[in-house]
Amino acid sequence: MSSEEINAASLGELARAEAACTRCPLYRNATQVVPGEGKVRSSLMLVGEQPGDKEDIAGKPFVGPAGQLLDEILEDAQIPRSAVFVTNAVKHFKFEPRGKRRLHRRPNVGEIERCKWWLEQERRLVAPKTFIAMGATAIRSLTGRSQPVSSLRGKTLELSDGTPLLATIHPSYLLRIRDPDDRARERLGLQQDLARGWEMARHLPQT
Ligand code: URA
Questions:
Q1: Atom of ligand 1 at shortest range from CA of 54
Q2: Contact assessment for residue 168 and residue 132, using Cβ atoms and an 8 Å cutoff
């Protein structure tokens, strides 16, 4: 069955279909697919880029260094991770082997577009009231805009069906900032964006 014929009735069924995905070449080198995690009818969907090395091994999103940082920031923003649907724009890890290490590579537009199909299936099943797109890949996938995050960060956009989307930085960006003051400022900005998205989602009626 091609992925276009799949109309999964549950997140479990969707995850099984995703595991057989060959819509782009990334499945060939990844260990496994990493589906989104959370409950159907979560009011907020958090979208990242793609699984990293640790997520590829665990089969779960945001469990590596960026995920641990995200967990800390969610806690500081008083957002229970279990109440949020956490996923990625691209479901397989894209990397370049370097000795024993696997270096992250950014997904290209073609890969983002091919994988968008799965994100849309998650969206259909979860029906979130608000999205938070963390980083350029998530923004590209959800809005079609190829713009630097800095020009959209903190802005609320509207998807074609009217669902609000808040654009913000990706937590892995924080891991690359060397200056402690800059890092603290950017971390607080991400925390405030997450808190705002959470408040928006909680106050919108469920569709
Ligand atoms: N970065 C992402 O965008 N997603 C993950 O799941 C982990 C790191």
A1: 7
A2: yes
The model carries a pTM of: 0.96
Closest CA to 128 of 166, 101, 175, 182: 166
In this structure, the residues whose C-beta lies within 6 A of any atom of ligand 1 are 48-52, 55, 61-62, 64, 66-67, 88, 172
For 116-174, how does the pLDDT look when each residue is reduced to its tens digit (9 = 90+)? 999 999 999 999 999 999 999 999 999 999 999 999 999 999 999 999 999 999 999 99
Count other Cβ atoms within 10 Å, centred on residue 78: 10
Cβ-in-10-Å burial (0-12, 13-18, 19+) of 177 comes to middle
Length of the chain: 207
**Strands 44-48, 84-88: pairing kind:** parallel
What single-letter DSSP state applies at residue 105?
Answer: -
Q: Mind listing the domains of the chain with CATH numbers?
A: 3-203 (3.40.470.10)
